[in-house]
User: What shape does this take?
Amino acid sequence: MKRLLLFFTLVLISCQTRIPQFNEEKAWGHLIAQTDLGYRVPGSPEIELCRKVIENHFVNLGIEVKRQNFTAEVRGKVIDGVNIIASSYPLLSRRIMLCAHYDTRPWADMDNSEENWTKPVLGANDAASGVAVLMELASVVASQQPSEYGIDFVFFDLEDSGDYGDNDTWCLGSKYFADNFTGSIPEKTILFDMIGDKDLEIPIEYFSYQNSPALVREVWEIARELDFSEFKNIVGKAIYDDHYNLLQKGFETINIIDFDYKYWHTVYDVPDNCSSRSLYIVGQTALNLIYRQ
Assistant: This one.
C-alpha cells in the first residue's frame, strides 16, 4: 500500500513539474523591444518594423509564420493591414489559439491635455503587453511541446483606430480574420489585451462570461490555484474587443483584460506605468492552461 501511495505521489509531482515557468524578464524585454521602435500606428514604418520583430521571433523558434494581408478604411483613408499568424505543431488536431493586437492608437484622445489629442500613443500596455506575453509563451512552447495541443498565435492589426461609440470602426484586423477563417475552430481561444498595468485587476469580461462560461471557469480556477488574486471573480463590463468578432463566428473565446487603466489612450501609456510582474501573472496562468493534464 505504501509503495502504491508513493507511486501516485511521484506521478502527481511529475505532472506538476511538467508545467514550465514563465520568464517575466524575457517577456518584459519583448515589451521594451516594441516600445523602443516608437509609435506602431497603422501605415507607419514603425509598425512594419514591429511586424518584422514578431515574425523573426517565431522564425528563430522554428515556428511556422505567415501574413494575412487586408485593407480597411480608417477615417476616410484606406490602410493596409497585416494579421500575423504563427502555428506551432501544426499537425496536431487539438488547438488552442492565443491572440493579441500589436498596433497602437494614432491619437491620444483620452489624455487630460487637449494638446495631446492628436499625438500618437506609445502603447506599452495597449498593446505591447499582450504581444510580449504571446512571444514569451511561444518561446516556452517551442522548447517544450505540450502533450495535448498545438498552439496558434495570432497578432491582429488595426484594432485601435476606431471612433468612440461606433463599434464597426474598431477591431478591423480580427473582423477580417474571423470573416475569412477556414478550417477547424480551436477548442479554446484567449485574447490578451492591456495586461501590463502595475495595478493589475482582471475581472471577468461580460461577453466572455456570456458566451464561453466553461473557459472562463477553467482559467479563473487556474488563477485561484496559483493564488493570483489579480484575477477577480466578478463579472465586469462588456468590452467590444477583438474577441467579439471571434465569438460571432462560434469561437470559444475569452478576453483577459484590465480595462481600468488610467493611462489608456494617453501619452502616458509607457513602460514606467507597466509591470513585469503583471506579465508573469497572466503568462503563468496561460502556461498552466496549456500544460495541465
